[in-house]
Amino acid sequence: MSLISTLARMEAVRDGRARPVVTVRHRHVAERPCVFVPLTTAGEAGAPLGAMVGTERDAPRLLFVAQPRDRDLRSAFLAELADALLPYLEEFGDAVELEQRKETDPGTGRKVPVEVELCADAPQLLVPSAAGVEYVRLLGRSMRFRRTAEQDPDAPHPAPPRVPMLGRWLTHFGERARVPGSSLLLAMTQVLGRHWATGQSVLEDQHLGSLLAWIDPPQGVPGPEAALRAELARGPDGLLVHPPAGPATDPVFDNKRLAPAVARYDRARAAVLEASAHRFAPARAELAAAESEIRELLATQLRPTWDAVWHGVDLLRTLPEGARVAERWKRDRWSYTAHRDRVRAGEPPQPRRDDAVTAARKLAARESAQAQLDAQEALDDPLVMAGRRLAGEAFAGEVAEVVMEYTEAKVPRPRPLVTVRTADAPLLAEGVALHRALPDGRSQSAEFVAYDPAGPGILTVRLTGGMGRGKVPDAGSVPEVGDRVCWTLFEHAPRGGPELPDPERTPWTHGGPPAEGPAEAPDPVTAEDLL
Amino acid sequence: MDKAALARAVGAPVTFGQSQFAFVRGHSFEARVKSDGGAELVRLLHDRLADGSPAPGPGSVDTPDLSATGLQGRTARTALALREATAAGRWAVLDHPLLALTVAGTPAYLEPDAIVVHPDGGWTVVEIKSFAMIDGSADAAKVGAAARQAAVYALALEAVAERMAEGAAAVREQALLVCPKDFSNLPAAALVDLRKPLATTRRQLERLTGVAEIAAGLPEGTTFDLCPADDGRTPTRPADELAEALDAVAAAYAPECLAACELAFHCRARARAADSVQTLGRGVRAELGGLTTVASVLAAAAGEAGSPDDPAVAALRRASALRAEALALAPADEGALAGAGR
Of A77, A116, A303, B336, whose CB has the highest number of CB atoms within 10 Å? Predict the structure, then answer.
């Protein structure tokens, strides 16, 4: 945590409500995002308990599993989830725009421009917390290797048709969420925490309810009090007034409410199976009642979180979008389009483990995305830039003097010396490269020359580019005396490292080319689940 | 001492509890792993070690009986069983042994899930956990916690090994972590390196102030006795008296405590009331020098207190000025950010 954000947290303590740590919104918020609030069964991996999902805040779709250990009920849940999510995830695949891209021609080895499709927009999934993002990954993993009856007629417990497809999409979204600055799948606590500082620690900010209470407390209640209530208040029945945002449920809820209801459901189902003909109808009614009881119980746990996520969406929409957010969202659209193409080309699901080249490529992409995000956020937002200036990675000041100088080449090029007066303390050494954003958005390179011996805070910078081709610099490309300028020590559009080889050309040091093995087998069925 | 009961008695919320679903699942998994008298555990361990030793055949795993009365009795029984099993030079699995470890001058009793004795006299701590290992990897935070737990057991085991003849027994530096494999209830195992957590735990235990020493520093008559009523549960001692006793003991609250200690909410309330900067996170203190309260930090940042020669104060003033300057650049947005929403 930087000193500036620490200070913001202290201001929040003083004011009793959250304080901004940014001046613009740094993440894309879709016009019609899809909110997904999952719940899971305690102690079991990938056994969903229920979910609220949808794009309309007034009409969430509630899905639930009456007995989470029953494989068939779980399958039915996943099929319903596919029903609820897939149309939304796939509907953005058809509206496309054409983009020019350079690709290497396999015949000549030359780079040639090709026209490729780029989806005009992409879906956006919002989950309440970072644990929700992990759960999306887990759901994706549990579904994508399942086989449908069509693929494998002999397998016991075939998956409903669309389930493996949803698994692949969720895997893709979960994987994309690991790229810094991406917005295909967002955790509300993380996005809100990026924009506001509360008067509590980062750990406590993981609780969506208390985070929201700090940012936008109910009328007349101080933030800390509202946050404490959201975090801990329990009703007379011992249940949390604000249930946790999941996917884990409150143990007290599990023990006091859910477990008895599930037991009742199990008894009712056994009764239906054993019922004689004339007892059948009442037994069925009993089962339906037990089912709807569980449904109601889960709704009480899911609805507050559902509303909280939408509340977060409202708050985010009050902020103006940062200038470079659209550029990052375009990368998300590329990512979405690429996965759409893989699905359409009939490629198999993502493997359990990436091969060496894919893993290295993903890591490199995340690293350069992080560097880009850091640079872009600072350029979009003076408050973020202030943090970089405090850290000595940038400095801003007023131009005191401009001296024109030229290179000694045959055709002299302008290399003006600019003297700046600044109160910042950048970490500079002679010849360090500097960067400045020009009014048209391009970045101009420069290098540090020297501190002025006349006094502290006066330094000289030599511009080295971005002034056009002629002897006379382009209009507006050289600052004038009195201008306020901001130079950064970091690049504005950092690029990743060198290109990696194709998977077929993986060097032996990294295990050689991946073996052309059989398709990944589905997870084996075990006798442990109740059936 | 029952810290949860104490927390309840002073009116602090206690959020610890386990869902019965998790409880049932955890137990059924552990029972399944141990169902065949430990042969499965030894097979998993041997598999993981892959040291070329002959595989344990049927009937080659001993499971000594560890039942005894009382904590001390069970500890002694465990030590005896360990000695016998090591002398026998065969595989043996000790199911829920009891170990003793001196913590801050007082003995603490520990019950690992199992200990495996190797034919060569090595001892391996086994941790059976119910979080899943998916495609060979599990939640790093949970694995880390399991490793720290196993390190404490290994330390306690070392004390037993030291009392044996030189070189007769050695505690292995790797623990066996057994988890459900993928989405099934089948066991998957991995060896977890204990060297680092062992070193950390050892250092922490050495640095702990002895309980006797802490008690000596307390006012005469300080007690956490709840004075339970006749039902043995309802405390009759007034809450403020208990809180006073609690306040007599120094506590270094950090937000991480919330996940580990029943009294954390009490300490947090106390730290917040004292306006301590610690409530904002452990790292915060580092950059603030001698300033320990939020009010003093804000006063220093605003230039109302502190000397500008103090580097922490100077940095704070610089940060505060930069922040104010940037916020002033976006006055319209500030309103939206601060007033949020409605």
Answer: A77
